[in-house]
């Protein structure tokens, strides 16, 4: 004691430090918590209930045969949702749908094994063949859903056609800033207890992506839809129910005891877990460290090759790492509008031989090796990225062939009368992969006799101004594809020669007409430097794609459109971005990554703790 | 004194106005907008048009600025009623508010008794003002006054900016105060000891380590602590002392009081230590230099010659004067707490203002960016004035002319 007293500065210091830590620790940590109405923040510990309409009796203890019940899984992500409501601004963030897989439910879901659409709340996906889709004599199209008898909300209320109708009416509410594309073409609808039917003004394959999330009328009607469902969530028709959102830290979802689905393999009632926690950690490095420390069970980190290699090094310790090609596809593209000349006064983009020279000059294998560490193959078509069975692989005609590229360069010089063919390449400077790509291009272009220059820009400038006004010569960015015919047709829409910005998304201005009278000066430009029979045919195909629902009609049109884009070298698809997920396989079972927008949480009802 | 404070406040106001205009124009000039992320979805054209109108993005830049400025200074809600505790819950400083109110009153009391004002009106004014300040502080603490400004809605879609910033402020203060206290109680004694033992082995090692800490990026320090103290320490010892990320365990609410305290400390330790390490280096260097300067002054030589004990010479005569330069540094650090430790919060998944700021920048969320910048600006202006007043308290030679 005496010695301690003689060391009192140290002791006082230690006490002060302890006091400071305690004082700092005593701040209210629950201030920004929001919890689901009628729920408590504490996780449920009750055994799964058996009230749901299951095909088999649900086990009530963790001793049940088959996969074990109970436990919690923690998933990490680098984004935090701005809102939980997927319909309002901010709800389009990917993390909203990642978490939403636990409580959102709708007409269809994307199977992670087949990448095909499957029915969720409905008995089957409507098609012309099964009578769910009817093209009427007056040129309209009627779609009919039949709702599963066993589908109920988490509060026990059955899912009805009224919920579908309420969802539609909410989306069409002009006061709400909701994406109404396709929905606004619905001219008539009616519902009954277990059916919902709507009529579109014209046939379109786009209907198969509608009603991906259904809103429970009985819980939401009368609320302020734009603001009441940002921090909490309505009753669930999915495997889990929203429980708690600790802002800046995590969202917790707990078991939906009324979930209707059973495990096709074991017949057990789903879900297996008591709860799932989504933790938000902005830094990739920290996500990896938290995973390594087993503070996190499942991660889907940004797919940098270093990250993948770090995770793969954990496989001997029990980690399972899945690396897949995703639906986000990077592509090289040419600008055909006037403003490209501000970037490169010597631009030769309107010359097909030059574009073919570029296509042959690109060594895609080297690009994939350097940027993706050779984890996947380069793309021979963008269709390959998300609907591989429909792809013609139309760009495989452009192999890496510097000699051939040089011949095309000479042909381009002869066509244009230029002594020098030059390229100015622009993309986003704050994306490491794209910067690496620009570095690789220096040698590739120079080797075939093209004078080459990089002019990279911050993504805010590139996507904010350059893209809108077509202020690039040779550009590079990515689109996101969706499985199914509707997703594919959406992508073809962006090349629509009749849709220049700002109204349309043909930022390339391939075949676009003159634009005048726009308030923002940059949009006013002359007609595209390429307007020919190919652009005319493509516009025709685009219209036909949006008028039919017959797969026998659509598939040949899709393939013809793909061939035109490839033959005319409007773009050059490079590679699909990787998607990666890692799970501690000795802790969590049933995990399967889904490379589409359904994401790694698509089958979370089937996850279970193997260490229970 | 009062005139000086008023003059400084007016200057501060002008500075803040200039800051807001420059930052607003810079954001506009930097290219890109909050709706750009929707552009690559061809189906979102209608939503983009609707939000552009709703958020006033189609208006001229200066009109947008003045709309923002008007909203920024317009009170949206001022009330003091029991029923509004729910709103206070949203604001996120509920539990801290009584503490802050009492701390402010306490600080004023301390200053009032330390200030050397030889005016006839001073004593009655002090008595009256102390009663007034304590009355108002205790009333505020008890009534839990609700005050909010109309800082608009976030363009990210996550609700009112005022609520978001004050919701994150609790976490930021927790981290900032812990780091500051750590830095003060380690950095300043370290600097003093190094000055007393100038050129000793301890001083040389301390100097070297200070430079290493000062020149190491916070990202490296943070990730290094994660690996060393959270990951490998557990592997080596089998005991998990610290967590890699987060402010609390998801099961925090179901823990007992002591377990909650332990959980908070185990989450707080690494981020606080990461920030503190750099401040310790800075404080110890400044304190050492300042202390050395004072220790070589004539009046200290006189004090030693008079036979005063060494401890008294150092603590009473040297330290008080040597603390003056540190005041500015610490004051600005306190102001910096408001902005949050942007990188540290991101590394450790800490739900504070710094992380909110990063999210806002990524989403080109003008209202949030402006609110965070202005909060930091206000903090710096206020703390500069506080520092200047403290100079007078610490050094009577300083006059407020």
Map the helices and strands.
The complex is a heterodimer of chains A (about 600) and B (about 400).
Chain A: H1 2-6, H2 8-25, E1 33-35, E2 72-77, H3 94-100, E3 108-110, E4 117-119, E5 133-135, E6 141-146, H4 161-171, E7 186-191, E8 195-200, H5 217-220, H6 225-228, E9 240-246, E10 250-255, E11 275-280, H7 284-292, E12 298-299, H8 305-312, E13 319-334, H9 340-343, H10 352-361, H11 364-372, H12 383-386, H13 402-416, E14 422-426, H14 432-447, E15 451-454, H15 459-469, E16 474-480, H16 484-493, H17 533-545, H18 551-567, E17 571-584, E18 588-589, E19 608-609
Parallel strand pairs in A: 2-11, 2-12, 14-15, 14-16
Antiparallel strand pairs in A: 1-9, 3-4, 5-6, 6-8, 7-8, 9-10, 10-11, 12-17, 13-16, 13-17, 18-19
Helix pairs in contact in A: 10-13, 16-18, 17-18
Chain B: H1 2-29, H2 36-39, H3 45-54, H4 61-73, E1 75-79, H5 85-91, H6 97-114, H7 122-143, E2 146-149, H8 161-196, H9 201-215, H10 218-237, H11 257-295, H12 298-305, H13 310-322, H14 324-339, H15 342-347, H16 353-362, H17 366-394
Antiparallel strand pairs in B: 1-2
Helix pairs in contact in B: 1-17, 6-7, 8-9, 8-11, 8-14, 9-11, 10-11, 11-13, 11-14, 14-17, 16-17
Q: Average pLDDT across residues of chain A?
A: 88
Shape of chain B: globular
Q: Give, in spatial order, the strands making up the sheet with the most strands of chain B.
A: 1-2
* Helix and strand pattern of chain B: HHHHEHHHEHHHHHHHHHH
Q: Major β-sheet of chain B, in short?
A: 2 strands, antiparallel
Give the rounded overall mean pLDDT of chain B. Answer: 83
**Beta-strand residue fraction of chain A:** 15-25%
Largest interface (CB within 8 Å) is between: A-B, 78 and 83 residues
Helix content percent band of chain A: 25-40%
The Cα radius of gyration of chain A reads 27 Å
Tell me about the largest β-sheet of chain A: 11 strands, mixed
Please work out how many helical segments of chain B DSSP would assign.
Answer: 17
